[in-house]
TrEMBL record:
It comes from Flavobacterium hibernum. Residues 57-179 form the Peptidase M16 N-terminal domain. The keyword RNA-binding does not apply. This is Peptidase M16. Residues 1-23 form the signal peptide. Keywords: Signal. Residues 211-391, 692-875 form the Peptidase M16 C-terminal domain. Its cofactor is Zn(2+).
């Protein structure tokens, strides 16, 4: 199925009268209609192919090879080699020597790691080429040839294998952290000591560093073969044409004679429940998961399957709504909890009850969550809960049907994977909706309870606890005692659904304002309305995304207007308002009121401005406008929610202390800005939490949103002025407010020194070094300079991939981030920054650092690889063309036109500049930016 269950936090609408509608009758064995838009076939050699034409991204296509192969198939000498092979696919094939695949596709504007990628898991290995230009027949053939070579023609040269050992060791190092170490302790319990526990895809580093070439080749020969492979091509292509090319190109891959059996591992049963407590020095918050394993059900492709999965999904979402509501209370013993049912391994599914207890509340938290589970299984759900769940789903599905042409390549691929690897058919959405309506129509509490009770079996139970040193951790005896007490709890009563008869606007009477003037801007075909309360609204019609409306509104001021002492309250003022609900509604009530509505709004305070963002389906545009009106006129501030917010911040502060990444981030801030930087408060420490104040937050919010006339609105979407204008008059022009003219105040903080060079030693469980380098300088703001900063960034990235990663095997990857930003008016300053970060073996820092600087010097000396420039140029032109498929681009166009005074659609503002950039431009930029730039180099090293 394409259709993904949306998160329960999204808002939906009621439009069909479900309970009186005529639904068809289906029988359990009725087949689910197969999606006819997808072409599926099997070649004589056993390879499966899928072709799906779509114009969601015009002129591009994505190419995948999905292999029914993973680390579970490794033998004891091959641990890590399924993943090793995945890397080797990018290091030479029959038709693409060396880095030929990357080189060829980068010239089409593709980016390694983004458009070209792969992953290996225990039971599948997937390679992808995403959004490659599809209108050049030669490029299409090239992409198909890449899939062809991946299928069976990897070169696997000894030299390339040796070069990759270091990269993978560094990948392991980068990924190695406390949760990985906890997983290693718990895996034997999760998987009941089956092979899964010993076949983590990253593997065994001793093997990765030392295996004989032949061992890798054996794995390749045994498992990479057409009967275990499917290819999928999705995009702006002609299906018949692609099918013909596939049949021709893939014919030379022979079917394997006497292939090894592709075995599958079932996790063995355990009659007696098992328990494990895992600890790690760098873990400071606990977690409990109680799971019950089941045999995976074989899909039958019938109404019965859809019925069961739909009923389960609704039952679990209702329990999770209750748990979510409980977590909104300060005295609730858990931070979050979730109960669900999902596929776990090839042959097993799990029911899981998982929770994050608050500090020192493991027993209480587990007890409360278990009681909720048992309450649901015993007493079921109220009529109101079920009706709201169904309303949400109808709305969500209708919205989905309106946007069938906008299904992303990735969603299609995820359906293809389920079809190929798990035999779940790809359904026809319209026919599926008919079945769903029948299922929803027949729902009642007994049906949902039965689904839950059927999954709560007595065997195959596991309780896995991530504990915290110094806490009173849940032990085996206590855990099982809590479970059995909950199962037999005589005091449990049915859940009371407290929600009734509330509405968003309540009895509020809105006095509409007026649109006092209207002006058209021909150049970008936009309209500007001035409202009677002084608000300016810029609007542009856009239907790149059907039925969508997007909104942004901004006014200058923001955090810059406050003193350091108030900054914590500034930073969390809008969070408090959001958590507190709206008008007379708590946030839980609000969520219920908005059941079935597709509309959301958020209010934020940023460095230099107040910002409102909103999005809705066109039929719920009025709801979005009402939400904006209410957040201005009737914000709610709840002292209990303040208590909860402060508690959450205190907890996360405590957790930060043991977390290596947070320690590194805080150290960099302290090193660069000094511990006593008064203008800003960038680190959330104890003093920060102590300075949070309910009264301040409330008054800051009210003050920041007191002057609506200072806001400029930008609206883009599939809506006509006839619909929009009355809503603007009613809900935006009616917002009252004082009038003032606020400006941003420049409070930029300087670094403590122009040149900072520091090594910082920290205690860590898995030793690694992390290198952080940054350049910053005031630099003139222009469209061309923005583009130059970006070219410099991307060309260096290509260099570091070649030198630090591929040649040295020194790091899994160097990450660069660069930008040129200007401070808001009245400031005339703008600043460019370039930052470089990578992890590596602590022993190798002194060897790798000079390489980082050598690559920069080369750019300064004009030694720029011509191909790097062309790859980058092509990528920018292609990305810009791709972005034009979506309403977000239209929003940027409108926003930039009115804030920065330029027209994004005019090639002279982007395409012409990108096309004009020469190596000399990059060299000149590097020299002028880097000369006299402020720099820091902070290197973290493990305490020996
Ligand atoms: Zn990898």
């Amino acid at each position: 199925m394409f259709y993904k269950q949306k998160s329960v936090l999204l808002f939906f609408v009621i439009i069909a009268n479900l309970f009186t509608g005529q639904a068809q009758n289906f029988k359990a064995g009725d087949p689910i209609a197969v999606n006819q838009k997808i072409k599926k076939g099997v070649l004589p050699n056993g390879m499966t192919y899928y072709i799906y034409p779509t114009t969601v991204n015009k002129n591009t296509a994505s190419y995948y090879i999905i292999q029914n192969v993973g680390s579970i198939l490794e033998n004891d000498q091959q641990k890590g080699l399924a993943h090793f092979l995945e890397h080797m696919a990018f290091n030479g094939t029959k038709n693409f020597e060396g880095k030929g695949i990357l080189n060829t596709l980068q010239k089409q504007g593709a980016v390694f790691g983004k458009n070209i990628n792969a992953y290996t898991s225990t039971d599948e290995t997937v390679y992808n080429l995403d959004n490659i230009p599809s209108k050049d027949s030669g490029v299409v053939d090239t992409c198909l040839l890449v899939l062809h070579d991946w299928s069976g023609f990897l070169s696997l040269t000894n030299q390339e294998i040796d070069a990759e050992r270091g990269v993978i060791t560094e990948e392991w190092r980068t990924r190695q952290n406390a949760s990985q170490r906890i997983y290693n302790q718990l895996a034997p319990y999760y998987y009941n000591n089956s092979l899964y526990a010993d076949r983590k895809p990253i593997g065994d580093m001793e093997i990765v560093k030392n295996f004989d070439y032949q061992v890798l080749k054996d794995f390749y020969k045994d498992w990479y073969r057409p009967d275990l492979q499917a290819i999928a091509i999705v995009g702006d292509i002609n299906a018949e044409d692609i099918e013909a090319r596939i049949k021709k190109l893939f014919a030379d891959i022979p079917a394997r004679q006497n292939p090894k059996k592709r075995f599958e591992i079932a996790i063995p049963d355990n009659d007696k429940a098992t328990f494990k407590l895992a600890l790690d020095k760098e873990i400071s918050s606990s977690n409990i998961i109680y799971m019950i394993r089941h045999k995976a059900e074989k899909p039958t492709g019938t109404f019965a399957d859809l019925e069961k999965s739909t009923q389960r999904s609704i039952a679990f979402s209702l329990i999770n709504n209750r748990l979510g509501e409980m977590a909104q209370k300060e005295d609730c013993p858990f931070k979050g909890a979730q109960i669900g049912f999902q596929n776990y391994s090839r042959l097993n599914d799990i029911l899981f009850i998982s929770l994050s207890p608050k500090p020192n509340q493991q027993e209480a938290a587990f007890t409360v969550v278990m009681n909720e589970w048992v309450r649901a299984t015993k007493f079921g759900f109220s009529k109101g809960e079920i009706e709201r769940a169904v309303t949400e789903r109808i709305s969500s599905y209708e919205n989905y049907l309106e946007k069938l042409n906008e299904i992303s390549h990735k969603s299609v691929i995820s359906a293809v994977k389920k079809d190929y690897l798990k035999h779940e058919i790809i359904s026809d959405p319209v026919a599926e909706f008919e079945m769903l309506k029948t299922i929803w129509n027949n729902l009642d509490s007994a049906i949902l309870q039965k689904q839950l009770n059927d999954l709560y079996t007595t065997n195959n139970r596991v309780v896995a606890v991530t504990g915290v040193e110094k806490e009173n951790n849940l032990n085996e005896e206590k855990a099982f005692d809590i479970i059995s007490k909950a199962e037999n709890n005589p005091t449990l009563k049915p859940y009371v659904d407290s929600f009734a008869g509330k509405s968003l606007m309540g009895d509020i009477v809105v006095k509409p304002g007026k649109i006092v003037s209207e002006k058209t801007t021909k150049e970008i075909n936009a309209t500007t309305y001035i409202l009677s309360n002084g608000v300016k609204v810029h609007f542009k019609f856009a239907d790149k995304n059907k039925k969508d409306v997007k909104l942004i509104a901004e006014s200058t001021g923001g955090e810059s207007l406050y003193e350091p002492k108030d900054l914590p309250s500034v930073n969390y003022a809008t969070n408090l308002a959001e958590m507190s609900g709206l008008g007379n509604l708590t946030s839980t009530d609000l969520e219920k009121v908005l059941t079935g509505k597709i509309a959301n709004v958020s209010f934020d305070l940023l460095d230099s401005k107040e910002k409102i963002s909103g999005a809705s389906n066109v039929r719920d545009l009025e709801t979005m406008m009402q939400l904006i009106y209410m957040r201005f006129e009737k914000p709610r501030f709840d002292a209990e929610m303040f208590g909860l917010l402060k508690q959450r911040m205190q907890n996360s502060l405590n957790e930060k202390e043991q977390d290596i990444e947070s320690q590194m981030n805080d150290s960099i801030v302290n090193t660069v800005y000094g511990k006593n930087s008064f203008k800003k408060r960038m680190i959330e420490n104890q003093e920060y939490v102590d300075d949070l104040s309910f009264d301040k937050m409330k008054s800051i919010y009210l003050d920041r949103f007191a002057d609506v006339s200072n806001f400029e609105f930008y609206i883009v979407g599939d809506v006509t002025p006839e619909i929009l204008k009355p809503l603007l008059e009613k809900y935006i022009a009616s917002i009252s407010g004082i009038k003032r003219n606020e400006k941003y105040v420049d409070k930029e903080v300087e670094w403590i020194s122009k040149k900072i060079d520091k090594d910082i030693v920290i205690k860590m469980e898995t030793p690694k070094s992390s290198v952080n380098i940054c350049y910053a300088k005031e630099y003139p703001y222009s469209l061309k300079n923005i583009i130059l900063v970006s070219f410099f960034n991307d060309i260096l990235t290509l260099r570091y991939t070649e030198s630090l990663r591929e040649k040295e095997g020194g790091t899994y990857g160097a990450h660069l981030r660069s930008k040129l930003v200007k401070l808001p008016k009245p400031s005339s300053k703008s600043k460019a920054t370039v930052s470089i970060n990578f992890d590596c073996d602590a022993e190798k820092v002194e060897h790798l650092l000079p390489i980082v600087y050598q690559e920069i010097d080369k750019v300064k000396n004009g030694e720029i690889v011509a191909e790097d420039l062309e790859k980058t140029r092509k990528n920018y032109l292609k990305s810009r063309a791709d972005s034009k498929n979506f309403n977000n681009y239209i929003m940027s166009l409108l926003y930039n036109y009115f804030t920065e005074n330029y027209n994004m659609d005019d090639p002279k503002n982007y395409e012409d500049i990108v096309n004009s950039i020469t190596p000399k431009d990059i060299q000149d930029f590097a020299n002028s930016f880097l000369s006299n730039a402020d720099t820091f180099e902070v290197v973290f090293k493990p305490l020996q």
